[in-house]
Amino acid sequence: MKNTDKKYGLGIHTSSPELGLAISNFSGDIRWQTWNLGRDLSTHLHQKLQEFMPPQTWQDLSFIAVAKGPGSFTGTRMGVVTARTLAQQLDIPLFAISTLAAIAWSYKGKNQQLSLQMRAQRGQLFTAIYQVGEKGLNPLLEDTVMTPEAWDKTLVDWPTSQQLINVENSLGISVLSLLELVHLEWQKGKRSHWSEALPFYGQHPVEK
């Protein structure tokens, strides 16, 4: 018999061609799955969500976590819109988390500074620097877009050493880190309204 006393969190990561979904009650019951959907992500997202949810139901959810970017413009937009719609209909909190923050949290385990770079359009880079601690992340340099030259200078001039992480395109598996980060906020009593969840694109999608 299913224990309905324990509520779940749902993670949705669509900021790369690899869709990632995860669900957990943070008490031992956790599932996750990734699909390399490429350009089909936008047409398959809702179907994959419906197939992934059972045996849990939408009413089992206490909150939703979604990757807000940076990453694919279309994928990120689809994920955020879908998560906002679900959170609004279910009347539950929605947390939008940086793609780079989720990657940084996947390196948890020791106190360290991580500099992250991910390829953007027009020869630029999405960049960020995070302090990774046992109880969460501290953004030392917020997610932003830089030229490779400006980023190199930033790293050279940074007062402390960091581990440089080159973020690749297949990011679906980091949905687990995404969900963990939100659960840390949830335990601290934070409740984020769905209307506060906005995508971070970094660049205008049609700019040349």
Question: What does this protein look like?
Answer:
By secondary structure, this protein is of the alpha/beta class. It has 2 domains: 8-99 and 170-196, 2-Layer Sandwich (Nucleotidyltransferase, domain 5), CATH 3.30.420; 100-167, Nucleotidyltransferase, domain 5, CATH 3.30.420. 29% of the residues lie in helices and 31% in strands. It is built from 5 helices and 9 strands. It has helices at 41-52, 73-90, 99-105, 148-157, 175-187, and strands at 8-13, 18-24, 30-36, 61-67, 94-97, 112-119, 125-133, 136-146, 163-167. Strands 3-2-1-4-5 form a 5-stranded mixed sheet, sandwiched between helices. The radius of gyration is 17 Å and the shape is globular. It starts with 7 loop residues before the first strand and ends in a 21-residue tail after the last helix. The model is unreliable at 1-5 (pLDDT under 50).
CATH superfamily of the largest domain: ATPase, nucleotide binding domain
Mean pLDDT: 92
Strand arrangement across the biggest beta sheet: 3-2-1-4-5
| Reported CATH architecture of the largest domain | 2-Layer Sandwich
How much helical structure, as a percent, in the residues?
25-40%
- Say how many strands there are: 9
Order of helices and strands: EEEHEHEHEEEHEH
Write down the Rg: 17 Å
Q: Cα distance, first to last residue?
A: 56 Å
Estimate nothing, just give the exact number of structural domains. 2
Largest β sheet strand count, sense and barrel closure: 5 strands, mixed
The proportion of residues in beta strands is 25-35%
Sequence stretches where pLDDT stays below 50 over 5 or more residues: 1-5
CATH class of the largest domain: Alpha Beta
* Structural class by SSE content: alpha/beta
Shape type: globular
CATH topology of the largest domain: Nucleotidyltransferase, domain 5
Counting DSSP H or I runs of 4 or more residues, the number of helices is: 5
